[in-house]
């Protein structure tokens, strides 16, 4: 307490000066319209800037929750859109899809906790596992397109074989042309992928969208794989040399959706039985 009193005694002249300055400022503001308006406008300007900075900081701290909420909303929209498309496929008017078939795809949102893009065979780790109903063989997509397929799981985590993998193939279809080929990464650029097995007799257009075809049980048909970037000719081949811009940007992948095909096991069991009988 004595030290505090000594401080005020030593600084009494400076403290008196500050108090007199504040008092003078107060009288100037209250006795002059010009300075009063100037003070009001200036104080409001700086108060607005401070408030804007405070709001920006507050919004930034809530971005993680906002992203999580958006991912959950996209999960619900994906499920609704897929069910709608499966219930009204491109088919003769008299064809009616079975309700179980139309509702066979289920989506589970997950956060990416590890991701590689620099290797010939790349993998992704997510924070959902068998406790969340994830199992090997399920497809994985992002908000913008295809990602890969679940390779292995434990209770809380799963490892995904990325589409950026030298041995991963995806049955894909050109939207405008309607032709089906195979999308495969060539191990060079993580933003590009090849589309093979499209005949030279077919007129492929640059910019055409390429989506998952109906001839696989892992993904719903119509999930974007990429868009045609270049169309060339393979030497001594009867197929186009097609390069796609990948729909998914793997360098900033945050949330993914694991796709469960409820009828996949039933379909594959029957197909395996037929192969055995041949």
Topology:
Blueprint: H1 2-10, H2 12-31, H3 33-61, H4 63-87, H5 99-102, E1 105-115, E2 121-126, E3 139-141, E4 146-153, E5 158-165, E6 169-174, E7 180-184, E8 192-196, E9 209-212, E10 224-233, E11 240-246, E12 255-261, H6 264-277
Antiparallel strand pairs: 1-2, 1-12, 2-5, 3-4, 3-12, 4-5, 6-7, 6-9, 7-8, 8-11, 9-10, 10-11
Strand order of the largest sheet: 1-2-5-4-3-12
Q: How many angstroms separate the termini?
A: 99 Å
SS strand fraction: 25-35%
Radius of gyration from CA coordinates: 31 Å
User: What is the CATH third-level topology name of the largest domain?
Assistant: Thrombin, subunit H
Helix segment count? 6
**pLDDT below 50 for ≥5 consecutive residues: which ranges?**
91-97
Major sheet details: 6 strands, antiparallel, barrel
* Helix percentage: 25-40%
Structural class: alpha+beta
Mean pLDDT metric: 79
Q: What's the CATH architecture name of the largest domain?
A: Beta Barrel
Count of distinct structural domains: 2
| SSE run | HHHHHEEEEEEEEEEEEH
CATH evolutionary superfamily of the largest domain: Rod shape-determining protein MreC, domain 1
User: What overall form do the CA principal axes indicate?
Assistant: elongated
What's the CATH class of the largest domain, please? Mainly Beta
InterPro entries: Cell/Rod_1, Cell/Rod_MreC_2, MreC, MreC_beta-barrel_core
Transmembrane segments: 12-29
GO cellular component, one term: plasma membrane
GO biological process, one term: regulation of cell shape
